[in-house]
Every structure is written in structure tokens, then in C-alpha cells.
Design a protein that fits this description.
The complex is a heterotrimer of chains A (262), B (335) and C (277). Chain A is mainly alpha-helical and 262 residues long. Chain A has 13 helices and no strands. Chain B folds into two domains: 230 residues, P-loop containing nucleotide triphosphate hydrolases (Rossmann fold); 89 residues, OB fold (Dihydrolipoamide Acetyltransferase, E2P), CATH 2.40.50. Classes of the chains: A mainly alpha (262), B alpha+beta (335), C mainly alpha (277).
Chain lengths: 262, 335, 277
């Protein structure tokens, strides 16, 4: 009985605000002053318009790009760290972990100047590299643990069969790492989708904004369009909610992998 | 096929004692040589050095007379069979067999031919479409063997391939390996910690201990004329009896006598020692009798029908010419 | 050996990205912090440690530090307590419960901040209908706590997961032994479970306090640092200096100072963690 109460309390704390936001998104603008809506409407969604749709697209592009790059760069490095012997491999892993603790604000200034100098400032491509920097430590950590679990003899067998280290990675270890790659991909995607500071700083054209920026800067002409903001929030949250529901087990294992290995 | 020469190989890691200390060994073309010793003796290290999975700190490895230091495993044309089989889990049996040939860029027809030939030879043709996890331990080991065979390498390396199998399978595969060697006449370098395996399979045995070669020789020679106490104790079940020399009437030093060379008598006789039965263990085909003689205990092998009980008086007589004398440093004293 | 070169080649892209996009900019920020650099004036000249001297006397910096410290301390404590409760519930919860608890973590911070802003809204917000009289975002005192609430809502799931992993690592037999020895459930929890949970708790504290100290998203969207800079944390102050004022010199100084604080905090925690081993 006590447990059921606690569960109910926890669920209402975590899901309550989300439910309220979903309700607000179908609440007619004119009736916002009332305690509860008398009717429901989809006009808030309709009013979102193309700008927000473009924001979703931008977020998708950046998140997908970051995921692809960080997995490509991270997988091969993780394999090298786990199975090969090269100087500084522990430094790389430790350094990556330390870098994940950097405050983004510390790099935002110089990155702004650099991106401006190479002409990538107001572009989605210019976001992918900084995002990868924060995705990489996570990817490295997850994939290195995974590769370490695979037997060393497998690598020796591949070498004796004639593989170069790269071939062993490509033909033997990479195909075996789909679970860890999937977990990394999901986590990186979520982190990229949620990022605000870099997107806010580097993008200036309204049409290029990603979803968090669009929502942060959402402004009506006279009053805050709360209905539309709620609608935008729902649209922004929906893909992540689906991802979380589908891959809950992967996400949990990925987030706690570091803790357990400690 | 090729010979393998190890010339003064040394392998050491910083901050740790040497894994291998100046090991020199000549393996003839077509020979079956076992590297034997307790864990940590350097036998796996040696195998890795021959394979090219590791480079020696100093010294030279030659295959077929040509130096191979610095060459990758593929370039050395050696194949290896691992203790845990190390099959590629995501490939089926055919894929596992074909993989090294694909890496060598052999034409497709040749690959298919060799895979079929090898699968047929090892009796795994019906398993070609199965994945490793669907196979039994014995089947997996055959596939691992097949993966090595299919490459037709100059040298075959075995890293304790039978250790993970149960006793019955181990005996069966041991026989198959011996027949395979006879059929192929290939150079086999075989690592094991099981002395019985080494004895039954090898043309010659190399005994290693903490990185140093103790003795190299045919099984008969290793068994009958061990170079030192360590080798004597490593081979033979039950273990050789090593006692102070005076127990067997030898002045000074230590002596060794194998259990099968101790005759058990019910009554005193010339050259026999008096003792008390301590323990009698029936193994099925024979009985191992532990006898207390003076302050020492000797183990002797008796017929299965041996009936004396603990506490009874008994006499043991060493067979002439079978006593091994060891000097102070443990080496066999030449008589 | 060729293999070693190949190994380095496999790791090289990662090293390049981390070095170029993470390490180099931090070094560049340090370099910039020693200059007076206003972007729109195209001004950039060396001033040595003048920015840092100014920093030490900057009252706004002082209050940003204390705001950030307060935020971190309160938020992390709340998250730890609540996270522990949720972790215990998660132990025997199903997949659906876990997904539900995970949802706030998956929601973009900007979105959740907006969502709570709506709840806090003085005219229409739900919280106002329930408890009128509290001006959440308008009063300087309440605004920081509103931000803390948002942070707790968003990151407690993550803390709960870390603690769950710690709970699952406790061998069942130890708890059974305690029960057999006569301890009641509450006693078992405080005398056996919590001490064994210490590594996980310390880890959660490490991650969370470093994260909380760097907070930006939630506060930017919720209050932009207001009202009257009451919720201005270090990151917000640095951001405004860099982007609003275009002062890359002093802005970099603030960034470097923030980095130094986070580094110090991290080292302290690592020392605590290290002593445990």
C-alpha cells in the first residue's frame, strides 16, 4: 500500500507536468483563463507553421549527423583502446572522460570565433563537430567496455588468419558490436537533440534553428502564445518519448555502464 | 612445410621478470614438437613469438630457414588453433573456414574447393550453415582445426586446444590429431600443460620452466632419463618418488624411483626395504600403495588385487638400474 | 611495428576531434582572457592579468559564484534524496515504470523549462491556482528555487539510475543475513544498504555536482538570469558577457574562471572517491 502511494506520487511528479503541457497544447487560446477547457482544439498545432517544422528538420539533421560522426570516430578508437597496444591509450580514455566534464561555456567563445573564421558559423554542419566532442567520451566509454568484454583470442585468431588491425576491426569486431552501437546511437541522438548553448550561440538565422532554440526563443507578437509553445513542446518531445519507451532497457544499461564498471 | 628455429629468444616486460630467457630450439620440418610446462613457464609466450603475435625482446625466429622477425602473422604463413576455439560468432562454419582464404584474396572457386575438402576431411560438412553457438565443444574444435587446415600453412601452432574439452572427447580428438599429423606430415608446434597429452602426441618434447628450457627429447628419453628433478616430477602418474639417497642405499644427494619400478613383496628379500602400508588406492586397473619406509613415504604401483591393509608390514624393492640420482642442484648425475 | 602505427591511426580521428574541438578552444579561451577584446569594435590588445584582477573585485562575479554554489548544493541534495527513493521503487518496477521515470531525462531542457514556466505563470499557471501568492519567477528569492525545481525534475531520473545500479550490485545474501540477524527493514536499509551504496552515491554526487555547476539551459529559458540577476549563474554571466556585450576578453576570463571552479570541484570529489579505494 505504501509502495503504491509512493509510485503514484513519483509518477505524478514526473509525468504530471508533461500531461499538463499536452493538455495545454489542445486547449483553445481564448479559454486559457478558465481552470479547465470547455472544448479542445488542434489550432495550436496548426499555428506552428513551417518555421517550427524546419526546426524539427534542423534538429534531425544535426542529431543524425552527430550520431554518425561520433560512432564512426568513436568505434575505431574504442577498438584500438580495448584490443590494441599503443602509447597513450589510457590517457585518451581518461582525457575523454575529463573533457566530458568541461563546462561548454569554456569553449563557446573561441569556437564561435573559429567557426566564424571558416564560414561555418551559421550552419548545421558547424554544430556537428562541437556536439561530437561531447558525444565522443560517452561513445568511447560504452564501446571500449564492450570491446574489452569480447575475448582477446578472437583478435589473435583474426590476426593469424591474415587480418591487419583495421581488417580485424571491420570484419570481426564491428559486426559483433551492434548492441553497443545501438545504445550509443540512442544516447548520442538524445543528447544532440537536447543541446541548447551551442545551437543558441552559433546559429542566427531563424530558419536554421534547432528545436530547443526555437522553443527557447518562441515569441508571439503581443502575448506569449502558450498554446503554441505547448504544441511545439509536444512535437519536440514526442520522438524522444517514443525512443525512450522503445529502448528503455538499452538506455538504462548505457547510462549505468559507467557506474557499474567503476 | 618448414622447419622452425628459435635462436636465443628473450622476452621481457618492463618491471617484471623475464617471460623467456634465451630460449633456443630447433624444430625439424614435419616434426610434432610439444612445449610443456606449468603455467607461467613461457610456452604460450613462445607460441606467440613464433606466430608473430608478439615480438621478442632479443633473439631470432626463423621459419623455413628465413628470419621472420617483424613479419605479421599472415606473412609468416602459420596457422593457430586456440584453447577457446576463437571462432567468429557472427559467421557460420563456412564463413569461418573461408575467412582466411578471402583475406588472402584467393579466387572464389578455390575457396569453395578448399572449404569442401577440409570440411569433408574433418567430418563437419553437414555443419557448414550453422553458427558456432549451435555447435558442441568437439564440433567447434574441429571447425577451429579446419580454419587452420584450410590455409595449408607451413607451420601449425596449437595453444592448449584440448584443455576445454571433457576427458572422453579429449582422448578422441587426441587420436585424430595424431592421425592428422601422420597424414599431413606437417610441422606441428603444440603447447600443453598436460604431460600425458605431450607424451602420446609428440615426436619430441620441450620442457619449459619459468622461461628456461629444461630438456628437449623424445618422450621415451624425457621419461627414462629426465635432465633434472623438475622434469622427472613433471612426467609420470603417480609422481616419481624422490627421497634422500641413503633410503635406497645411495651415498649422498637425492634419488628418484618411479612407482612402477618399485616391486612389492610380502616377505623380506635381498635389496628390499621394510615398510608399513600407509594407504592403498584402487584406481580400477591397479592399486597405488603408499608405503612408509623410515621417515619417508614411497608410492608404488601394484596389481589391482593387492590386498594388504594400512598398518601391515610390507617390503619394497627398487628395480636395478632404474634409480635416478640427482645432484645438489637437482640435475641428473651421470653414472 | 606496423601494427602499432595502425592502432594509432585508428585512434587518431578521436584524438583530433577531442584535441581540436575541446582542448584547443579551452587553451584559446585562456589566451583570449589575457586580452581586451570587444568584437564589434574589432579591438584586441594584450592586457595580461588585468581581466583577472577585475574579476576578483567584480561583485557580479561574486554573486554568480554564490548563486551557482547555492544552486548546486540544494539541487544535488534534493536529487540525491529523491533519487534514492525512486531507485528503491525502480528495483521492483517494470519496464513501463522505468520508461515513465526516464521521460523527464529525455525531454530537452529547453522544453522542460518552458513547461515549468507555464506552470509557474502568474496569471494562468497551474501552480498559481493551487497555491496563489507565490510569485515563482518574479521574486528574486523564489526564482532560484524555481530553477532548482526544474533541475530536480529533469535530472533525478539519471541519479535514480546510478543509484539503482549501485543497489543492484549489493549482493542479496548480505541483506538476507542482516534480516536473519534480526534487523527490521528500516534498520537494514540504513545500516547495511546505505553504507554499501556509498560508491554509487559518491559517483552520482560527482557527476551531478559537476553538471549542476555548469547549468545553463534551464536558467536561460526560465529566467535568463533574472529577475535582477538573482538567478544568474556563472555560465549565464559568461554567456551574456560574450554574446550580448561582445566582450570576448572578459567573457573568456569568466569562462576560464568557471572552468577552474569545475576543475577544482572535480578534483575534490576525485580525492574523496580515491580515498575510498
Amino acid at each position: 500500500m505504501k509502495r503504491a502511494l509512493a509510485v503514484a506520487a513519483v509518477l505524478s511528479f514526473f509525468l504530471g507536468p508533461l500531461a499538463w503541457q499536452a493538455l495545454t497544447s489542445i486547449w483553445p487560446e481564448a479559454e486559457l483563463t478558465r481552470p479547465l477547457p470547455r472544448s479542445l482544439t488542434l489550432s495550436s498545432y496548426a499555428g506552428l507553421g513551417g518555421t517550427f517544422a524546419r526546426a524539427v528538420l534542423s534538429s534531425l539533421v544535426v542529431a543524425a549527423g552527430t550520431t554518425a560522426v561520433s560512432l564512426a570516430v568513436g568505434a575505431s578508437a574504442a577498438f584500438a583502446i580495448a584490443k590494441l597496444d599503443f602509447p597513450g591509450r589510457r590517457l585518451l580514455l581518461g582525457g575523454a572522460l575529463a573533457i566530458s566534464m568541461f563546462p561548454p561555456i569554456a569553449t563557446v567563445g573561441p569556437l564561435y570565433l573559429v567557426l566564424r573564421a571558416v564560414g561555418l558559423r551559421d550552419s548545421l554542419a558547424g554544430l556537428v563537430l562541437p556536439y561530437t566532442t561531447f558525444a565522443l567520451p560517452l561513445t568511447l566509454w560504452l564501446l571500449t567496455s564492450f570491446f574489452q568484454e569480447l575475448p582477446d583470442e578472437l583478435y589473435r585468431a583474426a590476426r593469424v588468419d591474415g587480418c591487419t588491425p583495421w581488417q580485424a576491426f571491420l570484419h570481426v569486431f564491428l559486426p559483433l558490436s551492434w548492441p553497443a552501437l545501438a545504445t550509443s546511437a540512442i544516447l548520442v541522438f538524445i543528447f544532440s537533440w537536447n543541446e541548447l548553448l551551442y545551437a543558441l550561440t552559433f546559429l542566427s538565422t531563424p530558419t536554421k534553428r534547432t528545436v530547443p532554440v526555437a522553443i527557447a526563443l518562441f515569441a508571439g507578437e503581443h502575448v506569449e502564445p502558450w498554446g503554441q509553445i505547448a504544441a511545439a513542446s509536444v512535437v519536440a518531445t514526442l520522438p524522444l518519448a517514443i525512443l525512450t519507451l522503445l529502448f528503455q532497457r538499452r538506455i538504462v544499461s548505457g547510462l549505468t555502464a559507467g557506474a557499474v564498471k567503476e | 612445410m618448414a622447419s622452425v628455429s628459435l635462436e636465443r629468444l628473450r622476452k621481457s616486460h618492463p618491471g617484471a621478470p623475464d617471460a623467456l630467457r634465451e630460449l633456443s630450439l630447433e624444430i625439424e620440418d614435419g616434426e610434432f614438437v610439444s612445449l610443456v610446462g606449468p603455467s607461467g613457464c613461457g610456452k604460450s609466450t613462445t607460441l606467440n613469438l613464433i606466430a608473430g603475435l608478439d615480438e621478442p625482446t632479443s633473439g631470432m625466429v626463423r621459419i623455413g630457414g628465413a628470419p621472420v622477425n617483424g613479419l605479421s602473422p599472415a606473412e609468416r604463413d602459420v596457422a593457430m588453433v586456440f584453447q577457446s576455439y576463437a571462432l567468429y560468432p557472427h559467421k557460420d562454419v563456412r564463413g569461418n573456414l573461408a575467412f582466411p582464404l578471402q583475406l588472402a584474396r584467393l579466387p572464389r572457386a578455390e575457396i569453395d574447393r578448399r572449404v569442401a575438402e577440409t570440411a569433408g576431411l574433418l567430418g563437419i560438412a553437414p555443419l557448414l550453415t550453422r553458427k558456432p553457438r549451435e555447435l558442441s565443444g568437439g564440433q567447434r574444435q574441429r571447425v577451429a582445426l579446419g580454419r587452420a587446415l584450410v590455409r595449408k600453412p607451413r607451420v601449425f601452432l596449437f595453444d592448449e586446444p584440448l584443455s576445454n574439452l571433457d576427458a572422453g572427447l579429449r582422448a578422441q580428438l587426441r587420436g585424430e590429431l595424431k592421425r592428422l599429423h601422420a597424414a599431413l606430415r606437417a610441422t606441428f608446434v603444440y603447447v600443453t600443460h598436460d604431460q600425458a597429452e605431450a607424451m602420446t602426441l609428440s615426436d619430441r618434447i620441450a620442457v619449459l620452466r619459468t622461461g628456461e628450457l629444461q630438456q628437449v627429447g623424445a618422450p621415451r628419453e624425457i621419461y627414462d632419463r629426465p635432465a633434472n628433478r623438475f622434469v622427472a616430477e613433471f612426467f609420470g602418474t603417480p609422481r616419481i618418488n624422490v627421497v634422500p639417497g641413503r633410503v635406497l642405499g645411495v651415498p649422498g644427494g637425492e634419488v628418484g624411483i618411479r612407482p612402477e619400478h618399485l616391486e612389492i613383496l610380502a616377505a623380506p628379500a635381498a635389496g628390499a626395504l621394510e615398510g608399513t602400508v600407509e594407504l592403498a588406492e584402487l584406481t580400477g586397473a591397479e592399486t597405488w600403495v603408499t608405503v612408509t619406509v623410515g621417515a619417508e613415504q614411497l608410492v608404488a604401483r601394484a596389481a589391482a588385487e593387492f590386498a594388504a591393509r594400512p598398518g601391515e608390514r610390507i617390503w619394497v624393492r627398487p628395480l636395478p638400474g632404474r634409480i635416478l640420482r640427482f645432484d645438489a642442484s637437482g640435475d641428473l648425475r651421470r653414472t | 611495428m606496423n601494427a602499432r602505427r595502425q592502432a594509432a591511426a585508428l585512434a587518431a580521428p578521436a584524438v583530433a576531434v577531442l584535441g581540436g574541438i575541446a582542448v584547443a578552444p579551452v587553451l584559446a579561451a585562456v589566451w583570449l582572457s589575457l586580452h581586451r577584446s570587444i568584437l564589434i569594435f574589432h579591438e584586441q590588445r594584450w592586457v595580461g592579468l588585468a581581466n583577472f584582477r577585475f574579476l576578483l573585485g567584480d561583485a557580479r562575479f561574486g554573486s554568480a559564484v554564490s548563486t551557482t554554489a547555492y544552486f548546486t548544493a540544494v539541487a544535488v541534495s534534493a536529487e540525491l534524496a529523491l533519487g534514492l527513493l525512486v531507485a528503491v521503487l525502480l528495483q521492483r518496477g517494470g519496464g513501463l515504470f522505468r520508461a515513465a521515470v526516464l521521460l523527464p531525462w529525455a525531454v530537452p531542457t529547453a522544453v522542460s523549462a518552458r513547461m515549468w514556466a507555464w506552470l509557474f505563470n502568474p496569471d494562468y499557471g497551474l501552480l498559481h491556482r493551487i497555491a496563489p501568492g507565490i510569485d515563482w519567477l518574479g521574486s528574486p528569492r523564489m526564482a532560484l528555487h524555481a530553477a532548482i525545481l526544474v533541475d530536480v525534475w529533469k535530472t533525478t531520473p539519471f541519479v535514480a539510475l546510478l543509484l539503482l545500479a549501485g543497489l543492484q550490485a549489493i549482493p542479496e545474501e548480505v541483506l538476507k543475513a542482516a534480516r536473519v540477524d534480526g534487523a527490521r527493514p528500516a534498520r537494514v536499509f540504513f545500516s547495511v544498504t546505505l553504507p554499501l551504496l556509498r560508491p554509487a552515491i559518491l559517483l552520482a554526487l560527482l557527476f551531478r555536482s559537476l553538471d549542476a555547476f555548469r547549468v545553463f539551459d534551464a536558467i536561460y529559458v526560465l529566467t535568463e538570469g533574472g529577475p535582477a540577476n538573482a538567478t544568474e549563474t556563472l555560465s549565464i554571466y559568461a554567456y551574456k558577457t560574450l554574446m550580448r556585450s561582445g566582450d570576448f576578453g572578459y567573457g573568456s576570463t569568466l569562462s576560464v574562471a568557471t572552468f577552474a571552479c569545475v576543475l577544482a570541484l572535480g578534483l575534490v570529489w576525485l580525492r574523496v572517491l580515491g580515498r575510498r579505494r
